[in-house]
Amino acid sequence: MLKNTFILLLSCFCGFAVADDCVKYKLLPKIKITNPIYERHIVQPDEPMDKLHGNVLATFVQDFDLVVDIIVQDGGYCVVLKKLDADIGYNDFLVKIDKSHMRGSCTYSAILNHEKKHIDAYLSVIKDMNSDIKDSVFNAANSVMPVFVDSRDKIDSVIETMNYKIQSHPEVVLIKQKINAAQEIRNKRVDQNEDNSELKSCM
Fold it and tell me: What is the C-alpha to C-alpha distance for residues 79 and 144, in angstroms, rounded to an integer?
């Protein structure tokens, strides 16, 4: 998702430009990866749930800010990717606990503590894979070549296309698949290692 785009105007170059003329302005894009600050919400839905563990729904985000240089030339502009700021990770966790457990009760707290372990599992995946995430985003961004346009009106469309190419780049798609696979494994491990001793002590 494209959030903000900053355009830097450079000095004018003489001569009529064509698409190939923009290649010489190619830059190694600077990459900055941050992880979103997450929120946790707890609800007790009306429909019956698994009383042992409750449930957690995690929201994954992947937001890219593209910073570009606009090289002004006779006949048009070269749009050059200069920097990419990416916000990648989980920004919201919805914890569901069966309504039969009164808020603040022993069983409620036991279930909530278990669900916190699942949240930690999600977050640990992003933390452990941050380096790989940055590498994949850099390679995707670095594959984006400068683009020539003959009108300023076309610049925003070019930036949107660059954003799409980065997010659909094979390495970015693959790293997201790896994140999904890793969190699935870690969340299953949380349940496998759970002996429910805290919950049983409430009975």
Answer: 11
Distance, in Å, from the CA atom of 37 to the CA atom of 39, rounded to the nearest integer, reads 7
Residue at 94 is within a domain: no
Checking if the pLDDT of 11 tops 80, the result is no
Residue 44 lies in a domain: no
How many domains does the chain contain in total?
A: 1
Q: What is the DSSP string of 20-51?
A: GGGGGG----EEEEE-PPPEEEEE--SS---T
Range of the domain at 18: 2-35+62-87+102-200
In order of 100, 108, 109, 201, the CA distances from 39 in angstroms are: 24, 19, 18, 29
Q: Which amino acid is at 187?
A: N
For the entire predicted model, the pTM comes to 0.84
Asked if the structure places residue 83 within a domain, the reply is yes
Residues 6+ apart with CB under 8 A from 109: none
Residue 50 maps to a domain: no
* Residue range 34-48, pLDDT digits in tens: 999 999 999 999 888
Of 134, 166, 178, the closest CA to residue 1 belongs to 166
